[in-house]
Amino acid sequence: MLEIEEYIMIRELHAQGFSITDISDKTGYDRKTVKKYLNLTTIPEPKQRAKKESMLDQYKDHIIKRLNEAPFTASRLFREIQGMGFKGKCTIVRDFVRKVRPEKGVQATYRFETKPGVQAQVDWSEFGKAEIDGKNLKLYCFNMVLGYSRMRYIEFTLSIDVYTLIQCHVNAFRYFGGYTKEILYDNMKQVVMKRALISTESDWNSKFEDFFKHYGLLPHLCRPYRPQTKGKIENNVGYVRRDFFLGTNFNSFSDINSQALKWLKRVNSEVHGTTHEIPLERFKAEELKPINDVPEYLVIREEARKISRECFISYLGNMYSAPYRFAGREATLQIISGKFKVIVGGEQVCEHEILVGRGRVSRVKEHFKGLMKEILKENKAAMNKSGQSILKFETVEVEKRSLSVYDSLIEG
């Protein structure tokens, strides 16, 4: 079937007086075709072209279904359908996801870019709960993003206290091989106790202050109620949730972090959506302070405990012995690298390896040496003190008289 434009051209040539043969010569169409279209009384309907089948067609329902379940990333969905047999490229999946993704209002923000080695951004995020040793515990994710290269580091934890925050920083520095001049935080209490108008003059958490001074870091606080100041890290938190966590199966808590490291290796090797470059390639230009230039910071967690009368301390569901002479005393646990020291009155009285699991007992024989002797000694002293009295018998005094007295009594 001819196109409408060609039909109109044939009609115009005929109106100008050209014969069917002349029109055939000029247009190249057969005389019968020319005659057919001159005899038509209505404009011909355009013929519907057959829709070209796409490699993605059989996977579109799955993609739409998954997007309605959660805001998965296009690359995450691409990996899923690859496992189902899809042979195409990620580009076609991104284009389709862009068309069908449920719309969400986005407030415009100004993006602030940083130079190499200048700034990193840090944040915590909650990821629901995890069952650990039969208990439902909150699951958190520590996020750090290097501002220039967009290299990412994540680590899942069961706590967000200052000790965990410091340890996650140390782990991130080790992962990157260095650290930036400054790090941007929101106003979390693990970092700052009281914010000042100039953030560097704020009243810092003393333990965290000791950490950042050790590395010569400069902490910065984002403006209150302005989370978009940390746009890079905010975007990463959502990306971790959509691209890694949602819909992934984990065997254990340690398995989460094991899979997280594999995920980091992949995403840090893929083109970033904002820079349109691969983070690992941009990372080569990052001017980080080498981690080996500074002795690694030792994260020493301190917790208060009381030594029981039975000479044991409870920690994470397990029992640990202490020397018997400190029974009933207040103690401080200094926890570091899978061990803890027991401090009483400024003196280290013992040390234990932290046991795995719950309901276990770590008993050191030397802690009880001499205890039985002390108990027997105290019992003996207590018995003597209670006064087991000795019976005393008083003798009756007999009056001595002359025999003449008895004689008179008989005679009388």
CATH second-level architecture of the largest domain: 2-Layer Sandwich
The CATH topology assignment of the largest domain is: Nucleotidyltransferase, domain 5
CATH level-4 homologous superfamily of the largest domain: Ribonuclease H-like superfamily/Ribonuclease H
How many domains would you count in the coordinates? 4
Q: Estimate the global geometry from the Cα principal axes.
A: elongated
Largest sheet: 5 strands, mixed
Strand content: 15-25%
State the secondary-structure class.
Answer: alpha+beta
SSE string: HHHHHHEEEHEEEEHEHHHEEEEEEEEHH
Task: Estimate percent helicity.
Answer: 25-40%
Briefly summarize what is shown:
The chain has helices at 4-15, 20-27, 31-38, 60-69, 74-83, 90-100, 162-176, 206-215, 231-245, 253-267, 279-283, 371-386, 403-411; strands at 119-132, 135-146, 152-157, 178-179, 182-185, 192-194, 203-204, 218-221, 289-290, 301-306, 312-315, 318-321, 330-336, 339-344, 347-353, 361-362.
Give a structural overview.
The strands form five sheets. The protein has a five-stranded mixed β-sheet, sandwiched between helices. It has four domains: 4-38; 57-100; 119-293, Nucleotidyltransferase, domain 5 (2-Layer Sandwich), CATH 3.30.420; 301-368, no CATH class. It is 35% helix and 21% strand. It is elongated. The chain has 412 residues and is an alpha+beta fold. The protein contains 13 helices and 16 strands. The longest helix has 16 residues, at 371-386. A hairpin with a 2-residue loop joins strand 11 (312-315) and strand 12 (318-321). It has helices spanning 4-15, 20-27, 31-38, 60-69, 74-83, 90-100, 162-176, 206-215, 231-245, 253-267, 279-283, 371-386, 403-411, and strands spanning 119-132, 135-146, 152-157, 178-179, 182-185, 192-194, 203-204, 218-221, 289-290, 301-306, 312-315, 318-321, 330-336, 339-344, 347-353, 361-362. It starts with a helix and ends with a helix. Helix 5 packs across helix 6 (90-100).
